């Protein structure tokens, strides 16, 4: 590790349900095989019945609220800040909730002792530097969730305010992006938050801002570097020459991204390891169907109604279609990249009521909500993975338990 050897820190397992075990020497380690079925420290529920309902109930209530406000855009605009704040608090101040809780707990003790100069030598220096600053400020481990959630929802707000219905845009992010990333995979959540701001810059043809933001996002999660390949498309129209230039530059760009230590690590972890991402086929499949929906139904209407934001969604659609081909190679890589496309997916779905797309507009508007609700319902009911990671939901917003456990 860059910066020289660091003293090992022995810490108790914060939440055995998230994959910790005791070694013979009493140290906490993550099981290489994944989650540990050890009973929870806070076994308020066995995962059956009521506790799981909170996640589905929130989504149902949000859908019903949006439906009841269908003809009241002013009231939706007034309630939007409350929705944004509520989802932020729900995500940021969770306690021992999320599959990656223990993973980031160990990163807190691993990276915290570094100096800022040492953090720049890490593969994702921006992310590592957050732990360094957090340790310097003396903040306990769970505060990293607050910081990551703030970055994510800041990006969501930047993109949401460009929508004719920001309220619907946030609701559509909830069942996949917020629960899976803002409440678990916070490193990529922060990267996607930055990329949502970058996507707005892409639509506004701000080349330097787009490139800088993408590089910053890659400092949180290296997978964001892939979106530098879209740089030739930021300015100008989408002529055949520009698309050919993008393809020409994509070849050396792809070679760079697919070479070096980072790519070797990704291949070792995700391609050659036999590891699959739970639920990836469903999430990537929905992204694929969204791209198909846009190309066959929405594309022409989008170009006419919103020529500015048409730029980013028209580029996202073919990438959505291509994601399905990655699943047989590595469901993890396909899943990781597909998450970046969900903001564009939410834009496509949220703007459906304003598009001249023929008959049965009400059904076409409601269909995305119903599909997402069905996916969330099946996941919460049948997924052992969900029960281990998200149940019971607990928050430290009104009181921080076990303070010493998560501090130096």
What does this structure look like?
The chain is mainly alpha-helical and 408 residues long. It has one domain (52-95, 142-383). It is 61% helix and 1% strand. It contains 16 helices and 2 strands. It has helices spanning 53-68, 73-92, 101-111, 116-119, 125-137, 143-160, 166-182, 186-203, 207-220, 240-257, 260-271, 280-305, 310-323, 331-350, 361-382, 384-390, and strands at residues 20-22, 28-30. The protein has a two-stranded antiparallel sheet with strand order 1-2. A hairpin with a 5-residue loop joins strand 1 (20-22) and strand 2 (28-30). The protein is globular.
Average pLDDT for all residues: 80
H/E series, N to C?
EEHHHHHHHHHHHHHHHH
Strand content: under 5%
Number of helices: 16
Q: Please, how many domains?
A: 1
Uncertain runs: 1-12, 15-49, 250-256, 262-276
Give the overall shape. Answer: globular
Strand order across the biggest sheet? 1-2
* Helix percentage range: 55-70%
Number of DSSP E strands: 2
**Sheet of most strands:** 2 strands, antiparallel
Radius of gyration: 21 Å
Classification by helices and strands:
mainly alpha
Q: What is the CA–CA distance across the termini?
A: 21 Å
């Amino acid at each position: 590790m860059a910066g020289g050897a660091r003293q090992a820190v022995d810490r108790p397992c914060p939440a055995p349900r998230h994959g910790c075990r005791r070694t013979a020497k009493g140290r906490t380690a993550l099981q290489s095989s994944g989650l540990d079925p050890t009973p929870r420290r806070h076994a308020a529920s066995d995962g059956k019945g009521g506790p799981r309902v909170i996640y589905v109930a929130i989504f149902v209530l949000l859908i019903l609220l949006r439906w009841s406000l269908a003809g009241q855009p002013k009231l939706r605009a007034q309630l939007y800040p409350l929705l944004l704040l509520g989802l932020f608090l729900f995500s940021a101040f969770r306690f021992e909730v999320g599959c990656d809780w223990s993973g980031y707990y160990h990163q807190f003790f691993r990276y915290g002792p570094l100096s800022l100069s040492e953090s720049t030598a890490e593969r994702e220096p921006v992310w590592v530097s957050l732990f360094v600053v957090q340790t310097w400020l003396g903040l306990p481990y769970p505060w990293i969730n607050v910081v990551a959630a703030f970055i994510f929802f800041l990006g969501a707000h930047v993109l949401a305010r460009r929508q004719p219905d920001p309220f619907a845009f946030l609701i559509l992010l909830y069942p996949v992006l917020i629960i899976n990333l803002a409440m678990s995979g916070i490193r990529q959540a922060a990267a996607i938050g930055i990329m949502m701001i970058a996507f707005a810059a892409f639509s506004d043809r701000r080349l330097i801002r787009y490139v800088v933001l993408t590089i910053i996002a890659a400092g949180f999660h290296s997978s964001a570097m892939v979106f530098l390949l879209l740089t030739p498309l930021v300015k100008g129209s989408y002529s055949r020459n520009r698309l050919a230039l993008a393809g020409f530059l994509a070849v050396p760009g792809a070679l760079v991204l697919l070479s070096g230590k980072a790519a070797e690590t990704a291949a070792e972890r995700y391609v050659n390891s036999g590891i699959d991402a739970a639920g990836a086929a469903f999430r990537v499949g929905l992204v694929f169907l969204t791209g198909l929906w846009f190309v066959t139904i929405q594309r022409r209407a989008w170009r006419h109604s919103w020529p500015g934001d048409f730029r980013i969604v028209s580029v996202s659609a073919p990438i959505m279609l291509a994601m399905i081909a990655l699943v047989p190679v590595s469901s993890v890589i396909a899943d990781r990249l597909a998450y970046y496309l969900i903001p564009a997916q939410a834009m496509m779905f949220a703007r459906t009521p304003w598009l001249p797309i023929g008959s049965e507009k009400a059904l076409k508007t409601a269909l995305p909500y119903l599909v997402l609700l069905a996916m969330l319902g099946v996941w919460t009911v049948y997924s052992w993975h969900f029960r281990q990671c998200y149940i019971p939901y607990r928050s430290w917003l009104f009181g921080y338990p076990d303070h010493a456990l998560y501090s130096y």
